[in-house]
Amino acid sequence: MRYAAIDSWVVAKRDLIHWVREPVRVFANLAYPVISVLIFGLVFGSAMNVFGGGDYIEFLLPGMFGQTIAFGVGTTLMMVSMDADRGVTDRFRASPMSQTGVVAGRSIADLVNSSLELLVLALCGLVIGWSFHDGLLNALVAFALFLWLRFALVWVGIYLGLLVKPEAAQASWMFLFPLTMFANTFVSPELMPGWLRVVAEWNPLSSTVAAARELFGNPGVGGDSWAAQHSLLLAVLWPAVFVAVFWPLSVLKYRNLSR
Amino acid sequence: MLAEGLRKSFDKKAALDGFDLAVPAGTVCGLLGPNGAGKTTAVRILATLLRLDGGRAEVAGFDVAREAPQVRRQVALNGQQSTVDDVLTGKENLVMWGRLYHLSKRQASARADELLEQFGLTDAADKRAKQYSGGMRRRLDLASSFIQRPSVLFLDEPTTGLDPRNRGEVWREVKRVVAEGTTVLLTTQYLDEADQLADQIVVLDTGRVAAQGTPDQLKSKLGGDRIEVVVRTAEELPVVRDVLGPDAEVDADGFRVSAAVIDRVAALTRVTSALAAKGVEAEDIALRRPTLDEVFLAITGHKAVDTSGVRA
């Protein structure tokens, strides 16, 4: 058990050192959401409507947090498939280290990375006019919900990372991008055509984003669907479902490496 | 290290089909074979990375199937790819593996310094591995395998893709650790590598042992290296044949005579001076080592079939 903790930390530290030494990558990671906030908030913002009224930047920021978190699955996927491809995973498996350490280390590194992204985005948002209105505690709960989703996505990323080669992993954003847009992230589902609206309302990302809007006191909350009205519950449940499905799948896949 | 009747299939295709192996402690065994012969599969099973379908294997006295954790404390694996982390320095790489082998921080750091010294990397200890040459990276990778002083080391094609000088460096390190008592199982596609390092060579063909013995035994089976003399006129062919000895083969169309030799350099000297004495001016004289394909053909009677597509 003690070794599991040490192993996790050693594996996580490897990634953290990468970020410190290769700030270009971190910068590129952060640049995308920051630039998006500026483009959507300041360029498109004036032409955007928030269903039910309200300031678009106030509406946008929780959506950006959500998209950033969802893109994190691409990072996890990439790192896991690179380790597997380079034989690092095999070295881990042939060593006496605890197998929990490999995945726990991955989770720690990814959560630290995403927390940093959220922090930078939030600061950027505060500068251009976003804010939270229902107290610091509620705001922190909202961020905790984002990280809960991120934790669940680590497992999705581990499973997919063991499944595909790095070249395929690189293409994952092509799927991630629309998945993060067919949601309530940038536009209220109420403004979308019927079928897409249903997809967007039930998109797990929408639940977390809607719950966060509520906790931040930002506009765009509510809607007629059951999913929209129970966003807080779903923001807790959806990630739990991901974990329940992808945790065992990942463990199975990891074991099957020795097939 | 012992393997008896190992069997392993991927998608119903047999990668290992009754593979046997016995390597005495402290010796080097070279697994030789073309891509797809089952070398990597054998190594992965013995290193506890793959489950076997049939047979049994023991490494360092432990059963690989039932006592995998004990085996992992005794073995180190050095795969075809380098697992060196580019962004970390040489020392940080070693400390990381030291920690994963459950040394304390101080022990891991001390062991890293020792290994850097042994593998001649002390000067580059604090440089990022990105700046290392191919040979240095390979040495660092090897060093990281030695953290727990393994009693068995698996080397899967350790010099594939290295230039001759770097290959020499790696060979020197392997010889050094063997001298310290480590048992090594080496897979290679290069005949000369097995020749340089191995006490015992096992030739694999489609999942089975096709031949085994010391390098000298295998070579004498094949006739070893060959000397080839090319002349300008057909009249000179019999003269050359006399010089090369009774087993010489004459290729009249190519004005070429060839024969097996044991000592390469001595044979070359002898043939050159004998030809000069008889007044034969050769167009070309060359020493040639049998290629793996030729060895393989001689031993198995068929060409190497590349089935590497079965499993990378």
From TrEMBL, chain A:
UniProt cross-references to Pfam families, sorted A to Z: ABC2_membrane
InterPro entries named in the record: ABC2_TM, ABC2_TM_bact-type, ABC_2_transport, Nod_factor_ABC_transporter
CC per GO annotation: ATP-binding cassette (ABC) transporter complex
One GO MF term attached to the UniProt entry: ABC-type transporter activity
Membrane topology recorded in Swiss-Prot or TrEMBL: Multi-pass membrane protein
Keywords: Antibiotic resistance, Cell membrane, Membrane, Transmembrane, Transmembrane helix, Transport
Secretion signal, residue range per the UniProt entry: none
PANTHER family membership: NODULATION PROTEIN J
Stated name of the protein: Transport permease protein
